[in-house]
């Protein structure tokens, strides 16, 4: 543990951010997996809204600094390709 007061505060702040980021990443994985499962089932009625939801969550994660914008763009492109192939 650090001795410097500001560093102690920083450690607490970083831990909160780490937990928040982990939660957002988990949400992203769930949203993307819903798209994948809908595509695997061949259900376009479920896949399209799931794709919109996943895209929103990816954009939100970028704006919060959880993932890089190119990472989000690549993921959105990949899931869009799968949904459009239905």
From TrEMBL:
Q: Which Gene3D superfamilies match?
A: Ribosomal protein S20 (1.20.58.110)
Region (Disordered) residue spans: 1-25
Composition bias of kind Basic residues appears in 1-11
| InterPro entries for the chain | Ribosomal_bS20, Ribosomal_bS20_sf
Record's GO cellular component, any one? Answer: small ribosomal subunit
Q: Which UniProt keywords apply?
A: Ribonucleoprotein, Ribosomal protein, RNA-binding, rRNA-binding
Going by the entry's taxonomy, the superkingdom of the source organism is recorded as Bacteria
* A biological process term (GO) from this entry: translation
The GO molecular function terms of this record are: small ribosomal subunit rRNA binding; structural constituent of ribosome
SUPFAM superfamilies, per database record: Ribosomal protein S20 (SSF46992)
Q: What does this protein do?
A: Binds directly to 16S ribosomal RNA.
* Family listed: Belongs to the bacterial ribosomal protein bS20 family.
Its protein name is Small ribosomal subunit protein bS20
Q: From what organism does this protein derive? A: Galactobacter caseinivorans
Organism lineage reads as: Bacteria, Bacillati, Actinomycetota, Actinomycetes, Micrococcales
